[in-house]
Amino acid sequence: MINNIKIFVALDYSDETSACRLINLLSPSDCGVKIGKELFTAAGPKIVEYAQKKGFEVFLDLKYHDIPNTVKKACQSAARLGVYMVNVHALGGSEMMIAAKEGLTQSKAKPLLIGVTLLTSHDQKNLHEMGVTKNLEDEIAHLATNVAKCGLDGVVCSANDIKFLKPSLPKNFHFVTPGIRPIDSSNDDQKRITTPEDALASGSTMLVIGRPITHSSNPYEALKAIRRTL
Ligand code: C5P
């Protein structure tokens, strides 16, 4: 049986035309799309509307991190765009995350609100620079627990982190996992990678996949092939 796990294809483009071209090669019955800082800064809300008009759910990956009131208002603006999911940095702290949640509670549309723990580009040295003395796993677990305490719906993390995170988090918590690589594809710049099937087995509830699909000569078939492994 084909598993119904959500896959968000990362539209990592600096222009609207390339993003629209990819959107038109995919089917909303196979995936949603992730719009991040690069594309949103270049193309603005109209690229969100374009994807939605084509039937795609949008994960607006802007990783808000600012004073609580600003993040609350930004989340409300995202909700007005009708996106499926939005995210904030857990490092922004409890007050900021609670304000974000409150902003969405007061909104008509209520996108899922996800906390980014530590970026996968952060290592122990970066933590030390930030003045954090905990080891990497303890800090990720600490931030994820705080995300749940603030009432958010899940975390963005590496699929490899789920085994130590899951026991202390709510049952219906979402684990949104990038760094996904089918067995025969290049790692690119990702360090901690997982195959789609291993990510699913680890407890991922949503997969974020970019280059294995967007750089393929046939993105539609590349996504279908990934789906067949799940
Ligand atoms: O091309 P690739 O599959 O590596 O794309 C992964 C996507 O997930 C990119 O848009 C990247 O910015 C995002 N991401 C990530 N690691 C995180 C958070 C987001 O790779 N920790």
TrEMBL record:
| The protein's Enzyme Commission number | 4.1.1.23
InterPro entries reported for this sequence:
Aldolase_TIM, OMPdecase, OMPdecase_AS, OMPdecase_bac, OMPdeCOase_dom, RibuloseP-bd_barrel
Q: Where is the active site?
A: D61 (for ompdecase activity), K63 (for ompdecase activity), K63 (proton donor), D66 (for ompdecase activity)
Q: Per the similarity annotation, which family is this? A: Belongs to the OMP decarboxylase family. Type 1 subfamily.
Tagged with keyword Lipid metabolism:
no
GO biological processes: 'de novo' pyrimidine nucleobase biosynthetic process; 'de novo' UMP biosynthetic process
| Complex and partners | Homodimer.
Gene Ontology CC: cytosol
Pfam families in alphabetical order: OMPdecase
User: Which classification does the entry list for the species?
Assistant: Bacteria, Pseudomonadati, Pseudomonadota, Betaproteobacteria, Nitrosomonadales
**What's in the keyword line of the UniProt record?**
Decarboxylase, Lyase, Pyrimidine biosynthesis
Which superkingdom, per the lineage? Bacteria
The protein here is known as: Orotidine 5'-phosphate decarboxylase
Reaction(s) the record says it catalyses: orotidine 5'-phosphate + H(+) = UMP + CO2
The Orotidine 5'-phosphate decarboxylase domain, residue ranges: 6-226
Stored CDD domains: OMP_decarboxylase_like
**Residues annotated to bind substrate:** 12, 34, 61-70, 120, 181, 190, 210-211
Gene that specifies this protein: pyrF
The function of this protein is: Catalyzes the decarboxylation of orotidine 5'-monophosphate (OMP) to uridine 5'-monophosphate (UMP).
Q: In which pathway does it act?
A: Pyrimidine metabolism; UMP biosynthesis via de novo pathway; UMP from orotate: step 2/2
Task: Name any one GO molecular function.
Answer: orotidine-5'-phosphate decarboxylase activity
